[in-house]
Task: structure prediction
Amino acid sequence: MSDANFDREWQLGDLLDPAQLARVGGALTTLLGGDCAIADGNGNARFGRIAPGARHRAVALELEPVAVVHSASADDRQLAAAGELLHGILRTQVRYHMASALHLEAVAEDFESLKRKHAHLQASEARYRQLAAELDARVKAQVAQLEERQQMLYEAEKLASVGQLAAGMAHEINNPLGFVRSNLSSFQRYLTQFSSLRERLTKDLPAWQALDLDFLIEDGRELLHESDQGLERIARIVGDLKAFSNVDRASEAFTDINECIRQAAAVIEAQLPPGIGLQLDLLPMPSMVCLPGHLKQALFNILRNAVQAVSDSGKPGTIKVSSQATADTLSIRIQDTGVGMRADQLEHAFEPFYTTRGVGRGAGLGLSTARSIVLAHSGTISLSSRPDAGTTVTIDFPAPP
Result:
């Protein structure tokens, strides 16, 4: 309680309102024989009329006169008793007012305390909400990272399986390829012997002419030459497939990026539909430390997407792959003249399982896998595209020191 409520100089009007003063005055009038007046400490009548020559009795609180009782009908003893009675009533009122003020102050203090606690709870709740939001964001980031790493692991396992399959296929193809080449070489020698025999015989042999063996020897050589070219192409495809699978180099190695581009392009070139051309414009680039198989997988995915985009356009088109090196960056650009993408499609292009193709025509893992591989090599990948204007994929790697 404040000191003002203890040190206050009380006035009659502060302690008794007019209704209370009327009830107290009526009771004193009865006790004093019908004549009573009550004045305040300044002598101003507050109840009744002060009769001329009336006796009076002062009532003090804390040594200060607060009220004066006047009566012409009462003797001194009665007047003293009335004064004591009024003094008791006023003291009771003082205690009541002090208790009331103390109660109000306590209530106000409790209210302020509750307000402070409420503010503290609000601050705690806001902090909790902030922490909850931060935790939720961190959980989402961790989940996204786990999903990305799981996707990378899945792709790595898939790539290893493809590599093992390619190695097995290469081995199985190389075996018959070897004896077919040997047989063709032997047959080439046989034709040479037939040619030597023809030179030893006379020119006009009815049976030789009837069987047209001169044409058979000449045509057989051409057929052997074409067959040898076909076998050479099969051997090159098998070599590219084996190099693309990279089964013998599963760890990091210094790699020529242009060679990775050529090998990925060789694999995709064998699958090109009619009307789609593939151009390589590769400038000299320094070797960098990478996982060659993974990098080829990323390039293959991007090239395959480009082939699909051009095919979906329904008209002939080209895919151009270029590379260049600067002091800080090794850059690869893959441009196609396909259907392109809208702005809303570009926003989701790298999301796993997102595809712009129809149901059953795309898994939506090509670009997301390529992005994961590029990021794992400390690189960046970006897209620029417009509908019906094609798409450009730009891959940048930091230049080796």
